[in-house]
Structure formats: C-alpha cells, structure tokens
Write a structure and sequence with these properties.
4 helices, about 75% helix, single chain
C-alpha cells in the first residue's frame, strides 16, 4: 500500500481536525447549558479553561502526523 504524501495528509488532517473540533465544541456547549455545570462563576471559569485546553492534546498527534516529512525527502536531504 503506498504511503500518503504530506499534502494528502494535510488535507485529510485538516478535515478531521475541523470535524472533530466542531463536534467537541458542540458537546462542550451542550454540557455547559444542560444544567450539569454549577452556577458558581469560579467553577465555570475552571471548566471553560480546562475544556479549552484539553482538545489540544489529541490535536497535537494529528498535526505531528500531518507535517511528517515524506520518505523520499529524507533520502534527498542526505
């Protein structure tokens, strides 16, 4: 099976990232307005800070995969 080129990985990764972030944001907003979140302003602040940072950890692995150099670039660079 042929390996994906960097440009194809970037295209796929962009769509996956956009779709996943949209679903994640809708889920987070649904939880926030459903009454499960306390009325305490400090707890709401902590919730939004936490969920605003959490998405970056899985996205990091996707972005690293997207920008991984093509195998032929490694050979040409030597």
């Amino acid at each position: 099976m042929p390996r994906l080129s960097m440009s194809m990985r970037k295209l796929i990764g962009t769509f996956v990232l956009l779709i996943c972030l949209t679903i994640y944001a809708l889920l987070i907003m649904t939880i926030a307005v459903s009454g499960h979140l306390s009325e305490n302003g400090f707890l709401q602040f902590l919730y939004y800070i936490t969920v605003g940072i959490i998405w970056a950890f899985p996205a990091k692995y996707l972005i690293v995969w997207m920008v991984k150099p093509d195998p032929e670039d490694d050979i040409a660079g030597r």
